[in-house]
Design a protein that fits this description.
It contains 3 helices and 8 strands. By secondary structure, the chain is of the alpha+beta class. It has 2 domains: 43 residues, no CATH class; 140 residues, RutC-like (60s Ribosomal Protein L30, Chain: A, 2-Layer Sandwich), CATH 3.30.1330.40. α2 packs across α3. The radius of gyration is 19 Å and the shape is globular.
Length: 194
Amino acid sequence: MTASVIDRETLVDKPVTYSEAERAERRFLGLPAFEPSPVGLLKPPASAHPSVSKKAICAPRVLNEAPDYGSAFSRGLRIDLPGGVTHLLISGTASVGEDGQTLYPGDFRAQLWRTYRNITNLLTAEGATWNDIVRTTCYLRDIERDYAEFNNVRNEFFAALGLNPLPASTAIQARICRSDLLVEIEAIAILLRT
């Protein structure tokens, strides 16, 4: 049996065939075995404990929302914990514009600066700054080719911000969601609510 799902790159319906094993797993999760799931089909079970407050983070002036091009994630989440502590979890962010287009294909440094701009705007939307960042995970399409430039730009940006101490960080070579994106960064910020 063939179903149809939206292809994230072309935004058109694309046929998909579920294997017997996939159909069995879909049924176990309460999903239809032969067709895409309708929105809201699964209702979460009643929780035995209170949930933390969660809110999606967005900065539409500079960066569109991922579901606009078929990806199922938020640009970031704000989590307000008891005791006045807030965590901001910034999803992998890249050189994407307000209409979802890749900006500066082939220009690693420009893509990195735009990535920092996008993250800065996501932080600002929640009243945070780079001083609140405690960790970054940096994905480079070609770490051998681009790491020296990555480190130069990062050092300049963090020095200009006067960050001290610097955030914990890891750089990883990885395939990024689009072939024309050369760098993507995710970040965690922690701040105190007053």
